[in-house]
Amino acid sequence: MKILLVEDQDLERERTAALLEDNGYTVDAACGLDDALDFARVYDYDAGVVDLHLTSPPSRMEGLDLIGQIRRLRRRHYPVLVLTLRNDVETEVKVFEGGGNEFIAKPYLPTILLIRLHAMLQATQRRDHAGDSTVLRHGPIALDVIRAEVRVDDKPVPLRAMEFRLLKYLLMTDRTVSTNEIIAHVWPSARSADANNVHNLVSTLRKMLDPEQMYEPIRHVREIKGYRLNDFPRETEAD
């Protein structure tokens, strides 16, 4: 797997490149816009890891501006994980709207970066194999990754950033996931959430997806303390 890493801070770039290479990835490391675009014009990548704030000379361009320029090169549409010092909903929305596929707040645990990068790559491979690179589906639920839109029975559902991230992760994995897995993949910082936060977020998402309680979109599998998307129509047996 070949990764484009864009980070203007020398020490951070060296550490992240070493982490990726130690875990089997091939890395092209760029310090700014010009270097990154030179790489992107020549190579197709499996994924990008891009710092949100590229403030060092010579580029002085933000990471999302770079992502937009890479997308306009019309080469292979690969997923991008965005790194940022900011840990707030407004930044997360900006990342998704700007073309980023994942979001991690600095400082991050190396394991979290590797987990999210791996999940992002797996999701891309599944979508490519299915012949649909932008929409994740499960029963009446459809999530457009590029437009950041969700529909249920073709009706739009206005989700907030955290609800969108949770639903996207459940659609990407298509299996039962533990509370700890959800925290690792959904929260910008794994240190900022616990099981109660996950329960509350799942409850909110259930209500948004199914306000009339016609079916159970997300099921709590109590025996292993995890969650999964439910089959449709609604199952009748107890948890």
SS elements, strand count: 12
The neighbouring-strand order within the major sheet is 2-1-3-4-5
- Which ranges are low-confidence, i.e. pLDDT below 50, for 5 or more consecutive residues? 57-61, 235-239
Strand content: 15-25%
CATH-level-2 architecture of the largest domain: 3-Layer(aba) Sandwich
Summarize the main sheet: 5 strands, parallel
State the helical fraction.
40-55%
The name of the CATH superfamily of the largest domain reads Response regulator
According to CATH, what is the topology of the largest domain? Rossmann fold
Structural class: alpha/beta
Rg over CA atoms: 18 Å
Order of helices and strands: EHEHEHEHEHEEEEHEHHEE
Number of continuous helical runs: 8
Give the N-to-C terminal Cα separation: 40 Å
Write up this protein.
- By secondary structure, the chain is an alpha/beta fold.
- The protein folds into two domains: 2-129, 3-Layer(aba) Sandwich (Rossmann fold); 134-229, Winged helix-like DNA-binding domain superfamily/Winged helix DNA-binding domain (Arc Repressor Mutant, subunit A).
- It is 41% helix and 20% strand.
- The strands form three sheets. The chain has a five-stranded parallel sheet, with helices on both faces. Strands 6-7-8-9 form a four-stranded antiparallel sheet, with helices on one face. A three-stranded antiparallel sheet has the order 10-12-11.
- A hairpin with a 2-residue loop joins β8 and β9 (155-156).
- α2 (33-42) runs parallel beside α3 (63-72) and α6 crosses α8 (195-209).
- The longest helix has 21 residues, at 110-130.
- The chain starts with a strand and ends in a 10-residue tail after the last strand.
